[in-house]
Request: fold
Amino acid sequence: MTPSGGARIVLTAEGPGASLLLFIDDGRLSYLELAPHVDDVVADFPPIEALTV
Reply:
């Protein structure tokens, strides 16, 4: 649930060294997050062909 009480969907994909999360709140794209798998900083999003679902 979102803070407003609506529906939230989170889509995830794995890339080299990071996870990519796409948040959809109440049917609208609301947030894109690149979460590193370790404490390293990831400066760029991985190329699409490097992602797996």
Summary: Residues 6-38 form one domain.
